[in-house]
Design goal:
By secondary structure, the protein is an all-alpha fold. The chain contains 14 helices and no strands. It has one domain.
C-alpha cells in the first residue's frame, strides 16, 4: 500500500506541472546567448578567451580535492547515477517511466548541440601546464554543452519534481538545495579540467529542460507504463545485471568509492526486485 501511495504522490506532483515551467530555463538560455553576443563571443576563440580566467580559477580551486572531484563527476555518467535509482522500480515506477524518455531527449540534445557548436575542450585550447586534468585527458570538438551536466540535471529535475513538498516554504528550500547539489556535481567537470564554465551552466539548463520534457511525455503518452508491471521485472533485472558487471569493471580499473556505492545499490535493487517477482 505504501508503495502505491508513493507512486500516486509522484504522479500527482508531475500532473501539477504546467507548461510555464519552461519559461525560466528558456529565459536563462536566452540571457546566456545575449551575453555572449554582447561580448562578441559567439565564435570559438572568443568564447574560450572570455572564460579562460574563470575556468582556471575554478579548476585550480576545485582540483585541490582531486579524489572528491573525480568521484563527483562520475554522477554525470548515466550508468552510475541511474544505478542508485533501481529500487524506485518497486516504490515509484512512474519516475522510471519519466527517466527513459527524458534520457532519450537529453541524448538527442547533447549529441546534436555538440556537433553544431563544435567547441574544442580546454585541453585543446589552453596550455595544459596552466591547469589540472584529473582522470583521462579529453580532447576533441565536443565541449559545448557539457553532456555530464545534462545527465545530472535531467535526472535531478525528475527527482526534484517527483518528491517536491506541498508547502511553499519547504518547496523553495527543497528546490534550491537540489539545484545547488546539481551545480556542485556539474561544476566538477570544470574541476577535472574537462569543460568551461558556460559549458556546464548551459548543459545544466538543457538537462533541466530535458527532465521537464520527459515528464510531459510520460503524462501524455503511456509508452513506458510497462515498467511498473511485475511481469516485466526480468527486463529490469537484466538491466541491473549488466549495470553491475559494468560497475565491477570500473572498480577494477579506477577503484573509485562512487562505483562501490553504485554497485551496492544495484545489488540491493536486484535483491528487492527478485523478492517481489518471486512472490507474485
Amino acid at each position: 500500500m505504501q508503495n502505491k501511495q508513493m507512486n500516486s504522490n509522484v504522479i500527482h506532483n508531475y500532473c501539477k506541472l504546467s507548461i510555464s515551467a519552461f519559461v525560466l530555463p528558456l529565459l536563462l538560455l536566452g540571457f546566456i546567448i545575449l551575453w555572449l553576443y554582447s561580448k562578441n563571443a559567439l565564435n570559438i576563440s572568443e568564447y574560450v578567451e572570455l572564460q579562460k580566467n574563470s575556468f582556471l580559477y575554478i579548476n585550480h580551486t576545485l582540483s585541490q580535492y582531486p579524489y572528491l572531484q573525480n568521484n563527483l563527476t562520475q554522477f554525470g555518467d548515466a550508468l552510475v547515477f541511474l544505478s542508485f535509482l533501481g529500487i524506485l522500480v518497486i516504490y515509484a515506477p512512474k519516475i522510471w517511466e519519466v527517466l527513459l524518455p527524458a534520457s532519450l531527449v537529453s541524448l538527442l540534445f547533447c549529441s546534436s548541440l555538440k556537433r553544431i557548436f563544435a567547441v574544442p575542450r580546454p585541453a585543446v585550447m589552453i596550455d595544459n601546464d596552466s591547469f589540472v586534468i584529473i582522470g583521462k585527458k579529453l580532447s576533441g570538438s565536443n565541449s559545448l554543452p557539457s553532456g555530464h551536466s545534462i545527465t545530472i540535471f535531467t535526472i535531478l529535475t525528475i527527482l526534484m519534481f517527483a518528491f517536491i513538498p506541498q508547502k511553499t516554504k519547504y518547496k523553495m528550500i527543497y528546490s534550491i538545495s537540489i539545484l545547488t547539489f546539481g551545480l556542485v556535481l556539474a561544476f566538477s567537470r570544470v574541476g577535472v579540467g574537462a569543460h568551461y564554465p558556460i559549458d556546464v551552466i548551459s548543459g545544466s539548463i538543457i538537462g533541466y529542460i530535458s527532465g521537464l520534457i520527459g515528464i510531459f511525455i510520460s503524462i501524455r503518452y503511456k509508452i513506458f507504463n510497462w515498467i511498473g508491471k511485475i511481469k516485466y521485472y526480468p527486463i529490469i533485472l537484466l538491466f541491473l545485471l549488466i549495470s553491475g558487471i559494468s560497475l565491477v569493471n570500473r572498480i577494477i580499473t579506477d577503484n573509485l568509492i562512487v562505483y562501490y556505492l553504485a554497485f551496492a545499490s544495484v545489488v540491493i535493487s536486484f535483491y528487492k526486485i527478485i523478492c517481489v517477482y518471486v512472490k507474485k
